[in-house]
Amino acid sequence: MRRIALTLAVLALPLFAFQAPPKKDPTKPATKPAATKPAATKGSTPAKAAPKPADATTAEAPAGPRVYVAPFKGIWGLDIHPELCQRFVDDIKAKKPDLIVFTLDSQDLKEGFYTAERNEDGTGFFDDDAQRRMLKLLDEELRGTPTMMWVQDSWGFSTLLAFAFKDMYMKPGARLDGLGRIAERYGVEDPQVLAKFREAVVAIANGFFEVGGYDIMIGRAMMRPELKLSASWKGRDLVWSPNADGTWLVDGSEKAFAGFKADVAVDLGLAKAEASDLDELMFLQGFREYQLVKSDGDPNLGAGEAIGDAWIKEWNRAFKDAEDKWNEAQTKLQLNAGKYADLAKRKYEEIVDILEKNDAAYTKWRMTRHPDLNQLKDQIEEWKQEQIARNKAKKDQGGSGAGGGGGRGFGTPGG
């Protein structure tokens, strides 16, 4: 009986919980009386209603980090040059981005269907002092700001630059190859000289690998054909070996140089991942949104892109100006060396001034087998001394003049 009574009591709870709304009291008004406005006094304006508080707005999502993209594109030693690197560094320090992305797209060699063909735009130029300067800029000047390298493609000396970065990403299909060109720097016949020179050149180049934190054994195998390269895993650690005994064989030949395609570089931990475009690269960093740092002069261009384009135009224009002056001087000297010696001297002086102000233009000048600066200056000095001798002879002869003469310059008949 108690259990039945308790059950009936529980079932009756909803009935007690639901109560009908209270009946309205007919003595109370149905609505509140309308508020009466206070009478406006003469000469005064009605007070305005207090503004309503602004509706709460949804906080805007952060726009993401400010990303500075600095493109290294073109020929190593010309388009990719320490002067360009310095301009990037100066602009980055001024703009203070949150993240720096260096890109690399440089080929000394193009892959043909049957053969590998030289790049018609040039093959790159390696200068020891220039490489040290660039490496120092990248290693010391940008500390404190996250920096990465995104390789579009690299075959040749430029591959060194990729290995200077601890955080490396690659475009699908990109290469890290062509460091066999370093062998061109130590190719001498004397075996004793070869060994010493080779070690010195390879050590300079391996400085890029050391800064990036990569095993220099990789660099040695990429620069010396007789060295082999393989890799094995010990737990989660990858161990490199200068032989073909490892689990993953990179280079098993004594006549070939080691190189890496993008997918292999990722599998072996040289590169973090592959990214097809900047959006994907930023997504891999965990950013769905980002702000590209724009150029001060052209808001349609990234800051680094504008600097890179300007540099390439600048050094090419300087080289063309020097080349034009050279051709003009040679043409005149071939017509009449004595008559046009003064004109040629002025052109040579202008050439020297141009080349001393733009190292990349001077590099191209030397690559195209022109006289170097010392030779140009020697020729200018020779013309000066000839002019002094003519003036002296003219003075000794009482102003009658000695006429003629004049060095013919380089590349002219009898010069």
Description:
The chain is of the alpha/beta class and 415 residues long. It folds into two domains: 66-293, 2-enoyl-CoA Hydratase, Chain A, domain 1 (Alpha-Beta Complex), CATH 3.90.226.10; 310-396, no CATH class. The protein contains 13 helices and 13 strands. It has helices spanning 2-11, 13-17, 82-95, 128-140, 159-162, 191-212, 216-223, 262-267, 278-284, 303-335, 341-357, 359-367, 373-396; strands at residues 66-73, 99-107, 109-111, 116-118, 147-155, 168-170, 175-177, 229-234, 237-241, 248-251, 260-261, 273-274, 291-292. A hairpin with a 2-residue loop joins strand 8 (229-234) and strand 9. Helix 3 packs antiparallel against helix 10, helix 6 packs across helix 7 (216-223) and helix 11 (341-357) runs antiparallel to helix 13. It is flat. The protein starts with a helix and ends in a 19-residue tail after the last helix. Residues 1-58 have low confidence and may be disordered.
Helical residue percent? 40-55%
**What gap, in angstroms, lies between the N and C termini?**
134 Å
Determine the strand fraction and express it as a percent band: 5-15%
C-alpha Rg (nearest Å): 38 Å
Task: Determine the CATH superfamily of the largest domain.
Answer: 2-enoyl-CoA Hydratase, Chain A, domain 1
- Mean pLDDT metric: 82
Shape: flat
Spans of at least 5 consecutive residues with low confidence: 1-58
Domain count: the total is 2
CATH architecture label name of the largest domain:
Alpha-Beta Complex
Key attributes of the depicted protein:
single chain, 415 residues, alpha/beta, 2-enoyl-CoA Hydratase, Chain A, domain 1, 3-stranded antiparallel sheet, 13 strands, flat, disordered N terminus
